Amino acid sequence: MSAREQILGRLRQRKAAVPASEQPDFSVLTRRQWSAGERLDLFRQQIESVHGEVMRVPREDWLTPLVGWLQQREISTLLAPRQHEVGQTLRAGWTAATGNKGPELRAYDRPIEAWKPELFSEVDAALTSTLGGIAETGSLVLWPDADQPRLMSLVPPIHIAVLDADRIYSNWLELLREQDWAAGMPANALLISGPSKTADIEQTLAYGVHGPAELLVLVRQ
Amino acid sequence: MTAEPTFHTRARASLADPQIRANFRNAMDGLMGKRTAAFEGWELEELRTLGAAVRQRALSQLPDLLEQLEANCERNGIRVHWARDGEEACKVITELCQQHQARHVIKGKSMVSEEMELNHHLAGAGIEALESDLGEYIVQLAEETPSHIIMPAIHKNTGEISDLMHAKTGTEPRRDVPYLTSAARQQLRTKFMQADVGISGVNFAVAATGTLCLVENEGNGRLTTTVPPVHIAVTGIEKVVGGLEDVAPLLALLTRSATGQHITTYFNMISGPRPEGHLDGPREVHLVLVDNGRSEIWQDDELLETLRCIRCGACMNHCPVYTRVGGHAYGTTYPGPIGKILMPHLQGLAQTQDLPSASSLCGACGEVCPVKIPIPQLLVRLRREAVDGDKLNPSVVRGHGVKRRRLEALVWRLWAWGHARPALYRFGLALAQRLRFLQPRRLGAWTRHRTAPVLASDSLHARMARRDGGSS
């Protein structure tokens, strides 16, 4: 008999049904609701409490403050999407915004196997879009795809995420219901709440242990 | 007594080690405070009730959910394997590695892989398995096992870790946590790039969508499940839940109970291998479902509650015994209160007979458990199973009756017999009162740190009767 048949067989042999629980009541998770302004404040407060940085930027011109931030840090390479609206806007306005003083724009346009060492050591920062934010936990929602692969938000030492202020939800349950995640999940979905961290050495917080050491959220208003 | 050190000898050694005591005490005190702060503003009781209900509902549908999970994972392109025990799971994983000519495996944190000693197995097949969670990496360098399920290296302080990394990896002997962390990052990044296979655990497996959820702060879990061409996820069969919504309360409870965080840095949901046209992610994803005694526990309504566990470690953080003896004293994969009720199931009571008694039954573990596992009641149940003899509730756990002593059983039978006969009882009581000067001062382990209680000259019954008589 196969392991599968034997395990399921043993489970199916149970004499009486497992005592079922009381009907789960999920209302405790969605009871706390906030206005749009409060959601943005809470999101900011939460993500700053875990070492993330928030920059509010005007929707029409978010490139100027971004470039200022990048140039101040002397970032020399930035990985950005090509298809997504965020990437298109950025690429269209890049020369004007940077005055050709860098950083150099790169694209994740090959399979990882073709440029692993390069991605791991030569890219300073990566910029991605987000599907929304979660106020209660200060989280960003990402569904990586061919244009914005999974490692973009993970391998470079700095991750910059673009978030529209009107897409900040109160909590994750509300977000996954409204965006109807149950209808179909992508190969990878992520909640990101701050830069990579560890407290495995004597409970002392250290950032950037495996992923980015810095997370900048551009909140477009 | 066997030559193998027992819980008692190991506990005594830990208690005598001020370094271990200080390391655990500091960590556990901090974690308790952080947990309390993280639940501020929450209806915690309601949330725990929801967490327990969601887990219990999933367990009540376990075989159906497992089949549904399998079907949806396969539909998504995740290959599903089943394993009756740890040995079989190790074999499945080793074979998968061999099919891909894997020499180097990188691992994310997985308690079930510790439970089945996967690294040892892989090493036997000539495959190097490297732990990538910083705590696990340190523990592996030290050739030890984790002493806490969430913070594996909590028994070591910075100085010890600095010396260890200096000796094993050539880092500078600096007691500087950011330096040590970035040194580990560099060492492990090379390994991530070279790894042929990534192996991870699973925090929640969602049946309705065929999704594997991983909770982590470091990003090593994401690297493990994204960079190597093959990802193998391994999990106990009890980790399955119905739908995505069920994950919401469990995630809210898990991170706050474990480390007092509102959420971890990464919550990683994997529902398939790299899709056509995508540029990263593994080409193959495998899921190994491990039983290893779980379907046995599941047969009993009371013991089954153990399977609700979401592995947060809050019971350890709040346990007065764990805090003092540390994780290694238990000598088992899962230490602390949850280990005391889980390990007897996985290994049988013969090997774990000291564990159910290694508790003062103070009840803290049950009070903080996010899914309301009645740990103290289960400890009492296992103590009973260890001595057998309750005809109304026959024992079922493997190795039951291992602590049964004929003399002890006889004494209790006489005790019951005497108490059911009033005349005999009164005679015995009077005799004991008269002869109380003969009572021994030393009563074995009980009086090592206490004075022996002295029998009163009078029974409570007699005193009450006198008081009632006087006041009327």
Automatic annotation (TrEMBL), chain A:
Organism: Natronospirillum operosum
Short name of any one Pfam family annotated for the protein: LUD_dom
Domain LUD, first and last residues per copy: 41-219
Protein name per Swiss-Prot or TrEMBL: Lactate utilization protein C
Domain of life: Bacteria
